[in-house]
Amino acid sequence: MRPRRLVALAAAAAAALLLSASAPAHQLSDAGAQAAARSHLQVTEIEYRLLLSRGVVHAGPLDLEALDRGMDPHDLHLRPIGSGQQTAVPELTPGQRWDGVVDLKPGTYYLWCSLPEHARLGMHATLRVVR
Q1: Residue 51 above 70 pLDDT?
Q2: What is the pLDDT of residues 5-39, one digit of tens each?
Q3: What residues pair up with 26 in beta bridges, in sequence order?
Q4: 115 Cβ neighbours under 8 A, 6+ residues apart
Q5: Distance CA 14, CA 20 (A)
């Protein structure tokens, strides 16, 4: 290929890329838009700690994913600090995963594994929920 033709081809490719990047994205369906607006939190459970994928999430529906990556069974409880109301994720066996949606109001939440001695040994964390 001749150098002039190669330069023209490269310029055309760059222009096409630039135009496609500035074109408006397709519209999401209502369900897709709601899902895209939700926060996501992954909680990895390992002896004896909880690892949160992030420390702050937005209020409202939260896609919660719990993963037991330890050698023992674990569960997960969430409770707004200062409240007796709590949400519980079922007990998971090693390697098991749980996915669900929970609705959180703004505040600070205490997360813990309720199996005997697990929280005392360090399986707890806090999560901030903001507007």
Answers
A1: yes
A2: 444 444 444 444 333 333 343 343 454 445 456 89
A3: none
A4: 72, 73, 74, 75, 91
A5: 10
pLDDT tens string 74-86: 999 999 999 999 9
Please tell me the distance from the alpha carbon of residue 99 to that of residue 114, in angstroms, as a whole number.
19
Cβ atoms of 103 and 61 within 8 Å: the answer is: yes
Radius of gyration of the chain (CA): 23
- Structural domains of the chain ordered from first start: 38-130 (2.60.40.420)
**Amino acid type, 117:** E
Pairing of strands 97-104, 87-92: unpaired
Strand order in the sheet with 60-68: 49-52, 39-46, 60-68, 97-104
